[in-house]
Specification:
Strand content: 25-35%
Order of helices and strands: HEEHEEEEHHEEEHEE
Structural class: alpha/beta
Number of helices: 5
Shape: globular
Helix content: 10-25%
Largest sheet: 9 strands, mixed
Distance between the termini: 48 Å
Number of strands: 11
Radius of gyration: 20 Å
């Protein structure tokens, strides 16, 4: 009986993760630094009925979700996914997906990120968005896409794989599926124009300032559940228990995503950071 309950809970959780992925907006609408988003027609929420290993990390999990979403469209035919391009035994890169959309061959790279707005970093809008632990940034990822991941299609070592698919690079288009959740400083208005404002999912706050939330409840999801939409059906922590747990995490120089329930019932995602 316990096994059945656990399996059902796991399946429900994967579906909730998939739903959260679908509800995350594309990070920009048209083009940023020449990178174009693949926009798919809106479809009703579907059941994710594929098996995913429990230990599959968030990035690879999102790739599986994108694949499932693509399969819901009759005009799309997936040709290959997650193909490593190797020089003898050394991997020089990986192509996320090659598909046909209405018979047009497309190379698609898939990205799902969490970025926090820090106006102290960089001078331009795109440069202000950094990872929760400050060890990555939006600009770094965009640069990698432009200079390494997308050009891999044109590498001589990729040609045999394309030949097997009867494809030529001069007839292909390149797109990204770049989704992200954005977080801004607590109670601070942030204006930006290049990115999609619908991606703002919450706020962030330094560990030294959480004392103002003593009358709130909290939840700390595992990283693969950062995809989930905030909901009430979790085991909420009191401020004292949350403070104890969060300090242990912050001591490891790790900024976790958390959920907060305010006294008026409002639910929100937020990051607690160690670096401000």
């Amino acid at each position: 009986m316990y096994f059945r309950i656990s399996m059902k809970t796991a399946l429900n959780n994967i579906q909730a993760q998939y739903n959260g992925f679908l509800q995350t907006s594309l990070l920009w609408e048209n083009s940023v630094l020449g990178l174009k988003q693949l926009k798919l027609p809106t479809k009703e929420m579907t059941v994710f009925n594929e098996t995913i290993p429990d230990n599959l990390r968030l990035g690879k999990r999102v790739e599986r979700f994108v694949s499932h979403e693509l399969k819901q469209h009759k005009a799309i035919e997936i040709l290959i996914e997650n193909v490593q391009i190797q020089n003898e035994k050394i991997t020089i890169g990986e192509l996320d997906c090659i598909l046909k959309l209405d018979k047009t061959p497309i190379h698609l790279e898939i990205v799902y990120k969490f970025y926090l707005y820090d106006e102290q970093v960089g001078n331009m809008e795109l440069e202000h968005w950094i990872g929760p632990n400050r060890n990555d940034s939006l600009v770094a990822k965009l640069t990698k896409l432009k200079n390494k991941q997308l050009p891999l299609l044109y590498h001589p070592l990729t040609e045999p794989m394309l030949d097997a698919l009867n494809l030529k690079t001069d007839g292909m288009q390149q797109f990204v599926c770049f989704k992200a959740q954005l977080f801004v400083p607590y109670q601070k208005e942030v204006k930006f124009t290049l990115l999609n404002n619908e991606c703002v999912n919450g706020f962030y706050i330094p560990i030294s300032e959480i004392i103002q939330f003593t009358d709130c409840k909290f939840y700390i999801p595992s990283k693969i559940n950062w995809l989930l939409e905030v909901h009430t059906q979790v085991k909420w922590l009191s401020y004292l228990l949350f403070s104890e747990e969060i300090h242990q995490i912050i001591d490891q120089k790790t900024a976790p995503l958390c959920w907060i329930k305010f006294p008026n019932g409002t639910l929100q995602k937020f990051f607690v950071v160690w670096w401000t």
